[in-house]
Design a protein that fits this description.
single chain, alpha/beta, 9 strands, Transcription Regulator spoIIAA, 3-stranded antiparallel β-sheet, hydrolase activity, signal, 6-stranded mixed β-sheet
Length: 335
């Protein structure tokens, strides 16, 4: 990791470097403790405050801005050390305080972290957070969405996003899940086509208010790299791919509707999800898994979405069978 950091700093000498903790950066893997109890064995804990979360003022923008960096490994369902804690590391309370202060100061914020809330779109019923942590995170986003201009997470190594809605169903925030530079194939049992090409993305934003107006993703085609040579190239621009004006919550809600209702947009999204690695079609079951994971971060609403969308598939199948069988039946009757 030090080599990568050195390369980055030499290449982008005047850029603000924001580091957040991945679940593999601690030993044992996935285990981050919720307090400074002597178990913090990662080098990362030596360079940031206890808990590995912090905020950074964005000084070179027109608006008052702040980057809030979370350690969501504290909420990871594979982290047994925080299983019985209400607020590991007091991070939720700290986040509330940061967002309240941002509102008082007129700041806009970005929230970044590694493990995202909600469900993995490639494996049905696979959440990342423990349920009580997932619920608390959603409540905080709903409460403070007016100061949040974007959420950026990773962990999946896939290209996806998540929606957050008010209790009345209005889209209030979106979370962009970035693809990984590491060509990872998930080890989760039951996942088909779980590999990805390496990908990086450039976020374009308005320096006056931090509104995200576009995201451009670049990728390295592993097949081409293995046969010829490595070559980074543009994969897609978000607004062009989905025909939206910007990356606001309302625009991303429109993307969800397009993916849900239009097979062309669904297949386009599915291609980008693996960073153009998996070129197979996304079938009806695949559609349910992705649409519900994107639309419903809440555990109960996700389960209801899967149930409703799956019932719709079964209903369509029954109608199809009926239309196939009925003409044969009437033809036989006329004879």
């Amino acid at each position: 990791m030090r080599c990568e950091l050195r390369t980055f700093l030499l290449t982008f000498k005047f850029a603000l470097l924001i580091i957040f903790l991945p679940n593999q950066a601690v030993t044992p893997t996935n285990l981050s403790v919720g307090s400074d109890s002597g178990h913090n064995v990662s080098f990362f804990f030596l360079s940031v405050p206890s808990g590995a979360y912090y905020s950074e003022e964005l000084k070179d923008v027109g608006a008052a801005g702040r980057m809030i960096v979370l350690n969501t490994n504290l909420y990871y369902d594979s982290n047994s050390l925080t299983a019985n804690m209400k607020d590991p590391g007091d991070q939720f309370q700290w986040l509330e305080d940061q967002l309240n202060n941002a509102n008082l100061k007129g700041e806009k914020v970005y929230i970044v972290g590694h493990v995202p809330p909600g469900y993995f779109e490639k494996k049905r019923d696979k959440p990342w957070f423990r349920e009580e942590f997932n619920k608390r995170y959603i409540e905080i986003i709903q409460k403070h969405h007016r100061v949040i201009q974007g959420q950026f997470f990773g962990h999946h190594h896939t290209d996806s996003f998540r929606m957050f809605y008010s209790d009345s169903g209005t889209p209030v925030s979106s979370m962009f899940i970035a693809p990984g530079v590491t060509p990872w194939k998930t080890t989760l049992p039951g996942v088909e086509n779980g590999a990805n090409n390496p990908g990086i993305r450039v976020v374009e934003y308005d320096r006056q208010n931090l509104q995200v107006f576009d995201i451009v993703t670049y990728y390295l085609n592993l097949t081409y790299a293995n046969k010829v040579s490595p070559r980074w190239e543009k994969e897609y621009r978000l607004t062009e791919a989905y025909q939206i004006p910007d990356c606001s919550a309302q625009s991303m809600h429109d993307v969800v509707k397009k993916i849900s209702n239009d097979s062309c947009y669904l297949q386009k999204y599915y291609k980008y999800n693996s960073v153009s690695y998996d070129l197979e079609a996304c079938n009806k079951t695949c559609r349910v898994d992705h649409v519900c994971a994107i639309r419903e971060v809440d555990f109960n609403k996700y389960k209801e979405c899967v149930k409703t969308e799956s019932s719709s598939i079964r209903h369509m199948f029954e109608l199809t069978v009926l239309f196939i069988v009925m003409p044969v039946y009437f033809f036989t009757f006329d004879l």
